[in-house]
Amino acid sequence: MRQVSTLALGGAAVLGAVLGVAWWVGLPEGAGASGFAWFALALTVLQAAAVVLLWNRDGRRTLGLVLLFAVVFRLGAWAWPTDLSSDLYRYLWDGRVQLAGHSPYGAPPDAASLESLRDDAVWPHINRKDVLTVYPPGAQLFFLSLAAVGLRTVGALKAAAILAELAGLLLLAAALSRRRIPLGRLAIYAWSPLVVAEVAVSGHLDAFVLPLLLLALWAADRGAHTLVGLVLGFAMLMKLYPVLLFAAIPKESRWRALSAAGLLALVLYGAYFAVSGPAVLGFLPDYPRSGEDFNIGLRGLVEWVLGFVIPHARTWAMLLCGAALVGVVAWIARHPERDGSESAARIALAFVLLLPTAMHPWYALWMVPFLCVYPSPAGLWLAATLPLSYLKYGPPDGPMPAWVTALIWIPPFIALMLAAMPAWTRRRGRS
Question: What is the pLDDT of residue 223?
């Protein structure tokens, strides 16, 4: 048995070394986002093989192996150019604007009043220079903090993202250990090309939200639900989706957590509202109307069907998918699992499948840690295939290839239907 374990760890180490070389060598110049899509697919195949080898492996050697290569991958990816997304330039800009004494909600980047803040390193790469920022007050406070401590370059921000996300990785390892889940399954998250790219290459804000979600899980394991509320509250003030996770908190503690989060939201929104007024919402009210239909899943199918029978199919499809998401989360809130992380895993998967707006790959980052605790075929498939959505950027401003949409979205729904069939059959038999 020990020999089998040693062989499994040895095989995983070899695969880790190959993955590490790939991340450090990177892509040829000019490969772009579409080149990354194929690169990520190849790496996901290797990662899947490593996960199979590590699936039931536990102990310090396994944890050390997974963590070692997790660091290696992220350090290699840190040096990549930010070709996949320009979001981090907006983070840097919003922090710079606040450090100069302006409100981030006061004027868009191309406003004449902010002309003195422009430079050659950040300004040219900002997306949508003519609109206000979309990021809520928690994110803005965070951007200001980064700028205030001197993290004002792309490299510094990406390094901070890596460090924050690795802290979350340690919290996830503790959650697995507490549940007596083999630590080898940490490789589902730690070695994921989706995670490595969106954290270390693109430096997305989600890299800083992830450790907050995992800190909330740590606090929930200890029954500290007021702390859970504060942590989730700040997380939802950075990105909105963590608000859904309040449904995973036990009913008897939910209002206490919501009250703590609500108080924090009132303070932060109040502080920025005092300076910016209603503009504190930024671009957010316009986001659903922006026509940013990148990689839409179920909503795209619903919109296509409705388009044959009613006008304004896009609006109705968004409303229907939004209502479905709210309905699923409400059902989970009424029937929470004993282990809140299982409810959280279901909520995150529902978010990815039913989100009525765009589904950029980094929107799914928060789903991946929970796959280590409660792996689902649908979630694992999405984590593996979502990087293929970057193939949209093969031809300039081209459409998403139909086969990519089908490959990403059809198998998860089939997997969920197959998983639901035994329960449905049992209920039918009782009736």
Answer: 87
Closest to 385 in 3D by CA, of 416, 408, 353, 415: 408
- At position 175, the amino acid (one-letter code) is A
* Residue whose C-alpha is closest to residue 88's, from 166, 157, 164: 157
Tokens 């909330």 label which residue?
A: 216
Residue recorded with tokens 């896009």: 314
User: What span, in angstroms and rounded, lies between the C-alpha atoms of 365 and 342?
Assistant: 16
The gap between the terminal CA atoms of the chain, to the nearest Å, is 48
Collapsing DSSP to helix, strand or coil, 124 comes out as helix
**Alpha-carbon distance 238 to 215, whole Å?**
15
Write the CB contacts of 272 (distance below 8 Å, at least 6 apart in sequence): 103, 105, 137, 140, 280
61 close to 9: Cβ distance less than 8 angstroms: yes
Concatenated DSSP letters of 24-91: HH-PPTT-HHHHHHHHHHHHHHHHHHHHHHHTT--SHHHHHHHHHHHHHHHHHHHTS---S--HHHHH
Nearest Cα neighbor of 217 from 242, 181, 199 is 242
In this structure, what token pair is assigned to residue 382? 């999405």
Question: Quick one: which of 224, 231, 275 has its CA closest to 250?
Answer: 224
Residue pair 192/214 in contact by the 8 Å Cβ criterion: no
Q: Taking 70 as the threshold, does the pLDDT of residue 42 lie above it? A: yes
Residue 247 near residue 332 (C-beta atoms within 8 A): yes
Number of other CB atoms surrounding residue 96 within 10 Å: 23
Listed in sequence order, the residues at least 6 apart from 125 whose beta carbon sits closer than 8 Å to its beta carbon are 82, 86, 89
> What was the pLDDT predicted at 312?
85
pLDDT at 425 over 70: no
| Contact call for residues 329 and 249 (beta carbons, < 8 A) | no
Phi and psi at 422, nearest 5°, equal: -60, -45
Q: What is the DSSP letter of 400?
A: P
Q: Enter the tokens of residue 376.
A: 């689902």
Closest CA to 194 of 369, 65, 53, 62: 369
Report yes or no: 19 and 46 within 8 Å, Cβ to Cβ: yes
DSSP 8-state class, residue 197: I
pTM (two decimals): 0.92
pLDDT at residue 136, as a whole number: 94
Is the separation of the CB atoms in 123 and 77 below 8 Å?
A: no
Contact partners, residue 90, CB within 8 Å, separation at least 6:
109, 126, 127, 133, 135
